[in-house]
Amino acid sequence: MRLTDDRYANEKSQFDLALRMIGHEARTGTITECTGLSDDRIRKLYGTYFRSGTGRRVRRRRGKSPQQVQFFVKTPLNQLEATTLVALFAANLLIRVDAKHRMHPCWPRPDVEYGHRLCRAYETYQLLHPSPKLSFEWAWALLQHVTRNEELYLATCAGCHAAYVQDAYALDHAECPACSIALKTPSAAGPPAPTRSKPARV
Question: Are residues 45 and 81 in the same domain?
Answer without folding.
Answer: no
